[in-house]
Write a structure and sequence with these properties.
By secondary structure, the chain is an all-alpha fold. It has 7 helices and no strands. This is Four helix bundle protein.
């Protein structure tokens, strides 16, 4: 658990190519004290997407603020929350469970975004862009799950 490889799983470690801005983010990470999970690119992407979702939710009409807004904010914040929880879990099953929940919450957020699109609160282009970002996060979560399993020696 103490090595930088364990704590900062990079896209290369789990077979996923880098993304734009990754080297700048690495410099920023190295210059400040942060929690271990903050080194995970998938947590950073999920956190940034959550902030983006919050901005969209602020534009929703009052009639939706306690319905879709609340559900979308909860599911979008649950993605980085559960990635962090899974990463910091001591026990293997708890670690995997946290990532499974994060993946499910990402799917739920995608569904809420389609509902916003269907109700004309966001455009199809906006919905597709945000859903695409969740797809990248889901792939990253899957890659991390596979990496943890391989490290443990699981066959699945």
């Amino acid at each position: 658990m103490g090595t930088s490889e364990d704590q900062g799983i990079s896209r290369q470690n789990i077979g996923i190519s880098g993304y734009q801005g990754e080297s700048q983010e690495k410099k920023e990470i190295e210059s400040k004290v942060i929690a271990g999970f903050e080194k995970l690119w998938v947590w950073r992407k999920a956190h940034m997407l959550m902030l983006e979702i919050y901005k969209i939710c602020c534009t929703l009409p009052l009639s939706e603020r306690f319905n879709k807004k609340c559900q979308l904010e909860r599911s979008s914040s649950s993605v980085p929350d559960n990635i962090a929880e899974g990463y910091t879990s001591y026990y293997y099953q708890d670690k995997i469970k946290g990532f499974y929940i994060a993946r499910k919450e990402a799917g739920e957020s995608q569904n809420h975004l389609r509902a916003l699109q269907g109700n004309k609160y966001i455009t199809e282009k906006q919905a597709n862009e945000l859903i695409g970002k969740y797809e990248e996060i889901i792939r990253g979560i899957n890659g991390y799950i596979n990496w943890v399993r391989a490290k443990r020696g699981d066959k699945k």
